[in-house]
Amino acid sequence: QAIENGSTKFYFSNKEDRGYINRLEFKVNNQTASVEDHPQHIDIIKVNLPAPLAPGEKIDITTPFHVKLPYNFSRGGHDGQSYQATQWYPKPAVYDRKGWHPIPYLDQGEFYSEFGNFDVRITVPKNYIIAATGDLQNEDEKKMLITGSEVLQKNLHVPSKNNSANDLPGLIESSPELKTLTYKQTNVHDFAWFADKTFNVLHDTLKLKSGRVIDVYSFFTPAQHKFWRNSLRTIKDAVLTRSEWIGEYPYNVVTAVQGPASFGGGMEYPTITIISPESNEKMLDFVIAHEVGHNWFYGVLGTNERKHPWMDEGINTFYDNRYSKWKYGEEGEIKYGTSSFSIRDAERLLFQSKAVVKKDQPINTQAETFTNMNYDLVAYYKTGAWLELIEKKLGKETFDKAMQEYYRQWQFKHPYPEDFKNVLETVSGQNLDAEFTLLDQKGPLPGLERQGTKIIFPLSSKAVVSYLRETPKNALIISPVFGINSYDKAMIGIGITNYKLPSSRFQFLLAPLYSTGASRLNGLGKLNYSFYPDAFVRKIDLFLNASSFSMNSFEKDDGSNITASFKKIVPGIRFTLNQKDPRSNIHRYIQWKTFSINEEAFRISYDSIFNPPDTIIEQSVNTISDERTLLQLKLVVENFRALYPYKAELNLEHGKDFIRTAFTGNYFFNYPKEGGLNLRLFAGKFFYLGAKTFSKQFSTDRYHLNMTGASGYEDYTYSDYFIGRNKFDKLPSQQIMVRDGGFKVRTDLYADKVGKTDEWLAAINLRTSIPSGLNPLSVLPVKIPLKLFLDIGTYGDAWKKDAEADRFIFDAGLQLSLFANTLNIYVPVLYSSIYKDYIQSVLEKKGRLWKTISFSIDISNFSLRKINRDLDF
User: At how many degrees (to 10) do helices 396-409 and 417-428 cross?
Assistant: First the structure.
């Protein structure tokens, strides 16, 4: 599951970093019991009772066990000398009115455990500070914590020397003297404890409405002093508000603990919660309140959170929203410029973005079958919004009475959704069938549909925050737009679009740009309409793209320049295929495009004017236009999985006199620690329609298969960005497009480029990352990935009977990847003799090394899924 959710950390972990539990020997009433391993899950075992257990009888089940805590991959373990002892003992599965519930440990998907009474003794070196579930029984230790808290509180607002979010101190020697601490707690279904030698401790007491006084603790490292100094206030606020809204907190102690950064979020346990380091005090307030709030629906009610995660996470989110409004009003937790927005605003935007493209899931989905993002957006956000609908229907006063009765009636009893519904209906006297039916439906909730239109100026933080808070149905985004290339020079214009989240079915983008170099109006535009059949085909896009820019220039004899431009119009359709499993990382589509392209070329003529005694030669340069059409069919299968992702693309193109076929496959082999090896395979075949003639060869030259990455002229669909598309000198001439053979050594100054063919071509491209420990650029303050590349290829011409060229050629060198692989710089170091001959005979010796360097700019393949695999809107 961790791999499916994008993490390979555990998969590639070392044996010494992994944990285990062993030395189990179950006895029933001191009689050894036989056990059975679960056929599927390594962490589930069945204990067979020596004799049947009759109703009303009881037995004692005992076992020793030995646990090796892992590195903290998920919720618990250790990080350095910081220990998080969670899920650390054999836990009995719940047996309720619906039978047994043996569930394996999952990272996404919490627990269902049985209530019990805990008496736990923990023996550790004396200089460890312990935080644990329940009441500490050692008065001397308790006094020490309280005394330390009193000292700390006197210096709470003294700035800490270290405010790093990730505090992992060096090795602190453990005390040779040991101490044993005892903790007791009744009516809880789990027990967790945390140990660190560097904990600061804050303590106070809190008087509840009933008059009962409880202890409040927070444990945190010195590095988080700045953010945790007000943590007791947050814990108290969370306990007081939820006690008022739901029912009184039943335990004698409540604790929040700061864990290491590797912990990755927050996790609740009865009476105690652990939270990763934060760098924002308000966000920490929100997370602490959320995690402490779990004591009610997770801790006291003990619902089956694996099967019905919404019954804890979602209901808790409802009270998070009420808490946030109670404490901060309309002020959000996240600062943006001079404004702020709430976590809820962001979650609503993302949920609606999923819902409009039918990629959301029903609330009543089991935890492990949610997609990673839907787990947060549906089980948390949508459930909270759903409960607000019920509150609105019942009225706040009636709703609160119903929730308090639900809490009172089902304490320590494991309620199910039908129990929750029954209490709400009984107290309110209203039928909630329609509302509870929504739990099994996808899409936005009724009454919460987006409405209205908003104009957004992205440079205004207030405008962006206003949109996040309201998320209207329609939005018009207006922004200045800038561009640059060698011919148009600087371009400035305005962008007008409704491309946004959530997406609209009809989307458009208009971006007219004035060219200061060509003194003309350029620009691009896009129209797109989407259908969502939600069947075998998940999405159908009908689109029309258009663009016009300068792509060449000519310097006349008088020193002035004339530019040539292109215009293209591209209608098309894309069918995105559905996947049966919502958690699938596979993306498949079939796409058709028709490229209608108008290109200008220079026509140069000279006139002789006889003006005795001289003859004057006048140069005349103008442009002529040429129209061409290309039909393109593309079939793509890609898998965005974290482990060994791949992509396969079949491209079929038909133009005048030819058909061009090309297959490109990419496969990434992950390395255990960082980076990996990317394998690219290419195979292409060029077909002539009718007889092969010199005229056809000449007219189709730019479409021929190319061993080297294509130049700007060979980007015949104008799909990539080139700073100087038809430049043959200086930096712009060194830009390539990684296509076809994908070699990095250029031979543009040859009449016939090495490896260019109108027959067939095949290539293998390898690219491997260099570990940061071996990367000489790692000493720089900015992280610059350094890679090695190797290209090997062959082509049809090399296999002809009279061919003199080597059948297989290669190049290899260094690659710098910048801006998330958008800009790649290639430095060839080794290459075939045919390339060596070109470099030595054609390139001038001065600056030769510089001229062998090439680079690519890839902005046409941008996808939100490259940022996050779940961003599929």
Answer: 130
